[in-house]
Amino acid sequence: MVDCKKKRIVIVGSGFAGLGMASRLLENGIDDFVILEKSDGVGGTWRYNTYPGAECDIASMLYSFSFAPNPAWDFKWAKQPQILNYLEKFTNDRDLYKYIKFGEKVTDAIYKKGRWDIKTKNGLTYNCQFFISAIGQLHHPSVPNFKGKDKFIGSSFHSSEWDHSVKYEGKKIGVIGVGASAAQLIPELAKGAKRLTVYQRTPNWIINKHDRPYSSFEKWLAKKIPFLSKIYRLSLWCQGEFLIWPVIKGAKLRGSLVRRLNNLEIKKNVKNRDKASKLIPDYAVGAKRILLSDKYYRAIGQNNVTLETSTISRIGKRSVETINGNKHDHDIIVYATGFHTNPFLKEINVVGKSGFTLKENWKDGAFAYLGVTTHKFPNMFMLYGPNTNTGHTSIIYKLEAQFEHILKLLSITDDGIIEVRGSVEKQYNIQAQKKLSRLAWSKIEASWYKDGGRVTNNWYGSSYEYNRRLRAPIIKNFIVTTPQIK
Ligand code: NAP
User: Fold this and answer.
1) 136 Cβ below 6 A of ligand 1
2) Which of 206, 246, 344, 419 has a CA 20 to 30 Å removed from the CA of 38?
């Protein structure tokens, strides 16, 4: 057992959330923490997702820390290597590497009398006062258990576990799924594939990115006049907040604009009428993530690309078969089939007060007060927890609000114990679900935003509203036990 009694805080995960939290702790004079990271480097999702074409679908000037602006982004929507590089540089610049223990996969987090035992697969135990989960929402690949899947003798892998030793040029490739990851990798594969078959279950609403590289003059301006970058960042935030968020709330005019833009792009790029008709969604705009791509429909329109919409019945030794009797030969199958997003923290056995587990707590779907704290789990904070995801803006903006929220809770708790009141959390959750039921996300039977009938992943309001509530915590909503009366 590693005796870490002097560690005040354990952060699990070193993606945007864990690194940003660590940096803000240091800036507030708190250096008594350790970051446990299961992989051998920082970056989280931006380390794992290396598929061809991987990039961000939120503009990078907004998808970056406000307290670590980067005037050197090459494209409006940065590519994965540059985002990973940004995080590695951030870790270096802020001297965070010395706080990180790599190769430490957390298996258990057990609360006992005001402290947490955080156990890892290596058999170590880190004892701390505060446990901060920064593990993200999208990191357990979901691969459907298709009949015959394991008998396939070609190469197959999930989009987030890309096998770069496999050459895809000139090959017969099947991509299963058409979500945000698929929309980025399909145009790249389509360029060189002999034949690419795209297996689509549900089409998406897609609008153009109008991506372009930043000119050296723009980069120079961003570096020399940081105020300009701030104004630009604000304008990007406003676009999400005032153009896309109303669509999710059901604004008719803006919704029909997205539909028109989507349909126009299909008409322009996909000349085969049968193919084109299969690309138009029949559900509310915004119910699933609205995708951004300049290249997707162009790729689908290519002659070497087949759009298969019949349900997959089985996978053969070298093929995928569908229930309408189609059989497509493949050298490679890519599972762009998303992630298990529920329950949150699914791989960690989290045990709170009186042996109560997070799994029991969330048996009907995850919830947490403002996505950060949950009753019966004192001194535990979540970053990017339940009901904090967004479909219209940068998650980094919301993470920054969570950092400040946690810093305030840490300061009022000092060396005591803090726990959100059960009644407050319950009331908050009832209200959240009521508001969520009116949004586009509830107007579809299933998506990764939902667990059964409940939207468990997304926040119900604007990101401004979230930020406002997080930055001014209502102290009476928490039970704070000071050391004297502990
Ligand atoms: P996803 O959006 O959940 O898409 C999964 C796809 O697989 C869907 O098309 C789904 O169809 C399909 N699928 C699942 N099971 C299937 C089955 N049994 N048979 C046929 N198709 C099946 O996953 P993702 O594309 O990995 O994206 C997940 C999230 O990651 C995104 O929403 C986004 O938040 C994030 N992401 C972000 C970026 C970025 O640029 N920032 C890039 C990539 C991903 P159905 O729709 O019918 O279920």
Assistant:
1) no
2) 419
